[in-house]
Backbone:
């Protein structure tokens, strides 16, 4: 019974939040890694791309809500998601046309493109704040919990409760579906294969007749979809505030680099590694330990490795360690 | 056409002439930031007092009070200091109604108000540290210091029979000051604090903070933060994870938004907010509802009183200067003299002009003690049926 309580407390405060957060990071990191693999630069505007896509989703959600349209227990935002993705595709293709294509034609160095993407980031950020404002926006509706703590306690009679939010379950399910479709696309379709070829060796790919502009276009479309989905899930699960997505950039890049830049599988692994490290290192283990250990050994302190204020420092430290000892990342991506 | 030009030129001259007689009063509040949902009502109340003074026609000969708003942001000391500089150098304000949050109030006081000799009357800065700040007699507040609020909260929690709590505070001067005073008062009463953890405002997710507090345990979570920022996030995350369902809230957590969002889930939670009852509060309710101002919101009463005291101190000194405000503030606020309620500012000014004395009671029973701060009355509330219900005043 004690062990079961420990397990439930662990799930409630560590496993469930970390899995949801990891899925959100993985989706974000996939976008970063795809751009790095194909367009060969670190896209700092990715966080704000997420914010922009999510903003459109929120606006359409509000419109649907005002018309009384909903999905019952599921959040209306799911219905608005395709609109957000479409708008985001338009935005990214437009940006590529106006900004990135110019530098691509000049064969600009990656570091120049990184700086350019920072400029794009500030523009996106400004537009987002201008349209929806810098404040918290609430757009979640539908059933809040899959299992609430109270129901769980009544069901099992255990001392500890377990809550699973609809948004958390939704995040995991959506992430699995999106990743499955992405891998199918990259490994099975002609366009996907040409993307991978282009990523592996640009010159060879061009020689074999692959149209580079088409590959770039498809990449932006996929990235737009990933960014909007990731941003919306994060907004549903936590909160939507344009500034938050800027802060999210660090863990997303850490995930992509830990997994190996350019490697989609690595991005997913990296996302979960970062999420679990952040949550487990800043979790106070006192409660779980006091269930597991005999009474004489119960800790009096909190058994917390780092205060929660240092959450972002954790991803930073992991990033530095990986860059020092294995610059290509866990899954042998490109070295930075 | 010529006539029109001449006419407009004359009007411009007249307007210019009227302008010269304006007495500018700065209203520096956090119109953006963590208490942005409270500040518009606070500013409206302060301006209501100034309007009352102007409309009565009893203010100093031919002069009118003119409010000038500025944004303190509540959290950004540099921005608040710059805004206050602007008020003093560009708008030539003679006194400042504000600032709101304790951190920016301290910054504005030491960096701008004291060097320029401009008095400040804060309606809502409650940090105990401000009582001892070097202010050259220029700082006043109509809100009580948190040293007292901490005691009030501690005894409320004890009355409820809760003997073990976890405390989280907003990582600001306000939160830290209130948390210190609560913890020392609560432990003195025999309570046990399992963990005191600060939280940063404006984060996306507070589940990690709540997990640590949950691990430490306790029968209730004492939230000393802001209702539009971290405090709300902490409560949300606690409810979601089932870590706590009983909350004890400081005055920064009082807000209608919070009740609309999750009042029904916080049944039985308690808190305190500076309040007032009696004739003054009723008179204030009457004039605010007549003027279409929201007088129910936090710190609206204190804001009205702050602005009224500035005006009355000027009349008592017979001139619209910073010195007059600083020198006469305690005289008009405290006994002896005729009791003055909200809506009677005209009468008060008449008495002062005739050489009489007044004791401004205002909406909050203002009594300035010690270095010029209100003694304060608190409203203890309990959350019932998703709304605030008053338990008692103390």
Residues:
């Amino acid at each position: 019974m004690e062990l079961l309580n420990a397990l439930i407390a662990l799930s409630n405060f560590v496993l469930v939040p970390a899995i949801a957060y990891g899925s959100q990071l993985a989706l974000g990191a996939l976008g970063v890694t795809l751009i790095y693999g194909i367009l060969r630069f670190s896209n700092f505007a990715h966080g704000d791309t997420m914010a922009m896509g999510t903003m459109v989703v929120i606006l359409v959600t509000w419109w649907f809500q005002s018309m009384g349209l909903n999905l019952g227990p599921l959040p209306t935002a799911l219905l608005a998601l395709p609109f957000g993705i479409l708008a985001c595709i338009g935005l990214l293709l437009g940006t590529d046309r106006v900004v990135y294509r110019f530098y691509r034609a000049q064969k600009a160095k990656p570091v120049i493109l990184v700086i350019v993407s920072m400029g794009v980031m500030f523009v996106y950020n400004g537009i987002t704040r201008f349209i929806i404002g810098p404040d918290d926006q609430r757009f979640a509706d539908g059933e809040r919990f899959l299992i609430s703590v109270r129901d769980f306690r009544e069901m099992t009679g255990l001392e500890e409760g377990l809550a699973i939010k609809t948004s958390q379950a939704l995040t995991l399910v959506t992430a699995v579906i999106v990743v499955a479709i992405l891998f199918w696309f990259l490994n099975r379709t002609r366009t996907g294969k040409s993307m991978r070829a282009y990523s592996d060796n640009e010159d060879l790919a061009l020689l074999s007749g692959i149209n580079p502009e088409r590959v770039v276009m498809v990449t932006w479309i996929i990235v737009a979809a990933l960014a909007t989905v990731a941003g919306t899930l994060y907004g549903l699960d936590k909160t939507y505030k344009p500034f938050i997505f800027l802060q999210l950039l660090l863990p997303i890049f850490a995930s992509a680099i830990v997994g190996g830049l350019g490697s989609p599988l690595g991005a997913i692994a990296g996302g979960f590694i970062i999420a679990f490290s952040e949550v487990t290192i800043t979790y106070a283990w006192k409660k779980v330990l006091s269930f597991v250990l005999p009474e004489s050994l119960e800790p009096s302190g909190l058994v917390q490795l780092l205060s929660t204020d240092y959450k972002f420092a954790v991803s930073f430290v992991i990033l530095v360690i990986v860059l020092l000892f294995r610059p290509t990342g866990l899954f042998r991506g490109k070295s930075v | 056409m010529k006539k029109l030009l001449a006419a407009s030129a004359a009007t411009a001259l007249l307007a210019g002439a009227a302008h010269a007689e304006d007495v500018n009063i700065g209203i520096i509040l956090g119109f953006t930031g963590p208490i942005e949902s409270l500040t518009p009502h606070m500013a409206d109340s302060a301006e209501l007092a100034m309007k009352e003074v102007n409309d009565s026609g009893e203010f100093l000969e031919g002069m009118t009070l003119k409010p000038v708003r500025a944004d303190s942001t509540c959290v950004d000391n540099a921005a608040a200091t710059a805004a206050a500089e602007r008020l003093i150098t560009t708008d030539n304000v003679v006194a400042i109604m504000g600032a709101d949050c304790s951190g920016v109030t301290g910054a504005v006081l030491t960096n701008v108000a004291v060097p320029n000799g401009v008095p400040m009357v804060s309606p809502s800065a409650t940090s105990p540290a401000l009582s001892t700040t070097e202010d050259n007699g220029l700082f006043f507040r109509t809100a009580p210091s948190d040293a007292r609020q901490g005691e009030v909260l501690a005894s409320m929690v004890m009355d409820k029979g809760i003997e073990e709590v976890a405390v989280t505070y907003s990582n600001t001067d306000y939160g830290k000051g209130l948390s210190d005073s609560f913890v020392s008062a609560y432990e003195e009463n025999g309570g046990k604090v399992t963990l005191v953890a600060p939280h940063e405002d404006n984060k996306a997710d507070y589940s990690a903070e709540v997990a640590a507090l949950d691990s430490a345990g306790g029968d209730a979570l004492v939230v000393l933060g802001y209702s539009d920022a971290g405090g709300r996030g902490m409560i949300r995350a606690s409810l979601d994870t089932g870590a706590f369902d009983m909350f004890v809230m400081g005055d920064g957590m009082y807000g209608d938004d919070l009740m609309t969002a999750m009042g029904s889930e916080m049944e039985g939670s308690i808190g305190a907010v500076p309040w007032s009852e009696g004739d003054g509060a009723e008179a204030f309710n009457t004039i605010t509802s007549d003027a279409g101002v929201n007088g129910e919101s936090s710190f609206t009463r204190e804001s009205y009183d702050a602005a009224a005291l500035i005006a009355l101190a000027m009349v008592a000194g017979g001139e619209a200067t910073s010195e007059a405000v600083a020198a006469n503030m305690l005289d008009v606020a405290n006994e002896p003299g005729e009791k003055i309620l909200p809506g009677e500012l005209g009468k008060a000014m008449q008495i002062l002009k005739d050489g009489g004395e007044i004791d401004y009671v205002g909406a909050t029973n203002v009594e300035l003690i010690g270095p010029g701060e209100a003694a304060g009355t608190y409203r203890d509330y309990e959350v019932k049926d998703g709304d605030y219900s008053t338990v008692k005043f103390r």
